[in-house]
Design a protein that fits this description.
heterodimer, A: alpha+beta, Alpha-Beta Plaits, three-stranded antiparallel beta sheet, 12 strands, 20% strand, B: 166 residues, two-stranded antiparallel ribbon, 43% helix, 4% strand
Chain lengths: 260, 166
């Protein structure tokens, strides 16, 4: 190989590598903010402050009532997880009944392994993390639906058409955040809708209204004056499982590295 | 080609035609690829309106204020002012028409959602006054001693001292 061929081949290889590198670009809220021709003027985004959450579970209770999820089932569209990290570096996570009745005891629910109580001196950190549908910009759940029952609206909310859903459960398996479940009454896939009936009427979601501590907020990413958008644009926020490439639109403040 | 080739071919063509005809009747007119494209936006457009039509149950404190302005205002001056009325009083729906009265949750379990003492040093819970539910008058209802609309029972001077300690 002469020098000319070597340089030619090198340029080809570098150009080839550059394409997948640009495809791997991580999430950028500013890109979503820019309104393109023919796009909706609204793109809903959610902001969770894990420092402010106290684990009262009022959000879970309100969500279940507002969205007609049977109170006694373990199915819930949103839930709150408690993280307890010991000084030895072990992480315990629990969410009894999705925190429908709040956290009222230091006993950590380990499912079939029973309960565990960790005393104050052994705890390094302990905090609460509310979870809900991330309304991803690349929703894996909508992509896998074989019948066109689950889809994303122009304002970025992923919904399920209960008349078209055949209950195959493919979307439930596809969601990396496990936010989908099976509705025990309708027998269709069930998920958080960002309270679509409320946000489209100018209201906030039921969980946002129920939270006394401002740990949950919702805003429009395409409105630069929206306080939620301003916080998200500050860039000092985290998202869950960024590496999956789903581009989640639920942003977290004070996100700890242990949170999955 | 002999008829043994054409006959099954006719049947196949007829079947395809049947499916296409049935499809035009069965698939809703508004089903198709919408704003988010083929990958994420294939759906029945009418379903969006169905989701928008879900009944709003929690009407927020702004709705309560239309009639109970005095209560909303006085509660707003206490630490419990941050809590939505409907968190304890239940969803308003179309109150006072339907339901005429709301079922108020006065249970101990409701108060314990925030006031059960937990060891959560790195969350907002650590700043809330907490009790051990097993030892703090376990049989009594909280409302027996505490007024949820005016929860501070300390004297103003004690409150000042508590705040200056922080």
């Amino acid at each position: 190989m002469n020098r000319r061929d070597f340089l030619k081949n090198s340029i080809t290889v570098i150009a080839g590598l550059a394409v997948p590198l640009s495809a791997l670009e991580l999430i950028n809220p500013r890109k979503l903010l820019a309104k393109k021709e023919g796009e909706s003027a609204v793109r809903w985004a959610f902001l969770v402050d894990t420092q402010a959450c106290v684990g009262c579970g009022f959000c879970v209770k309100a969500c279940k009532t507002e969205n007609e999820i049977p109170h006694e089932t373990n199915i819930t569209r949103t839930w709150v997880e408690r993280y307890v990290i010991t000084k030895k570096g072990k992480t315990y996570i629990d969410s009894p009944r999705g925190a429908r009745d709040g956290f009222t005891s230091d006993r950590i629910d380990l499912n079939e392994e029973g309960h565990l109580e960790i005393t104050g001196d052994d705890i390094e950190k302990a905090f609460f993390v509310p979870k809900l549908c991330n309304q991803c910009d690349n929703p894996a759940c909508a992509q896998v639906c074989p019948v066109g029952a689950t889809y994303q609206t122009s304002d970025g909310v992923v919904l399920v058409d209960r008349k078209h859903c055949i209950g195959c459960g493919y979307c439930i398996m596809a969601c990396p955040y496990a936010v989908r479940s099976f509705h025990p009454v309708h027998k269709t896939a069930e998920k958080c809708t960002f309270c679509y009936h409320r946000i489209t009427k100018g209201m906030k979601t039921a969980c946002v209204d129920a939270c006394p501590f401002g740990a949950r907020r919702i805003g429009n990413l395409r409105d630069p004056d929206d306080p939620v958008t301003k916080t998200i644009m500050s860039g000092r926020i985290g998202v869950l499982k960024e590496e999956y490439g789903t581009k989640p639109q639920v942003y977290y403040l004070a996100l700890s590295r242990e949170v999955k | 080609m002999g008829s043994h080739v054409w006959r099954p071919l006719y049947i196949a063509v007829a079947l395809i035609a049947l499916v296409l005809v049935a499809r035009t009747f069965l698939v809703p007119k508004d089903f198709g690829v919408h704003e988010r494209g083929y990958m994420y936006g294939m759906h029945r457009k009418g379903n969006e309106a169905e989701w928008k039509a879900v009944t709003v149950k929690y009407r927020t404190a702004a709705y309560c204020k239309e009639c109970h302005a005095d209560k909303v205002e006085s509660l707003g001056r206490t630490p419990h002012g941050i809590i939505s009325c409907e968190n304890c009083h239940g969803p308003a729906l179309n109150h006072p028409d339907d339901p005429p009265t709301l079922a108020i949750d006065r249970s101990r379990a409701l108060c314990l959602r925030c006031h059960a003492l937990l060891t959560t040093p790195t969350s907002g819970r650590a700043d809330i006054a907490g009790i051990n539910p097993d030892t703090h008058n376990p049989e009594a209802e909280c409302t027996l001693c505490h007024d949820p609309h005016n929860p501070v029972i300390r004297s103003p001077r004690d409150e000042q001292a508590r705040l200056s300690q922080k």
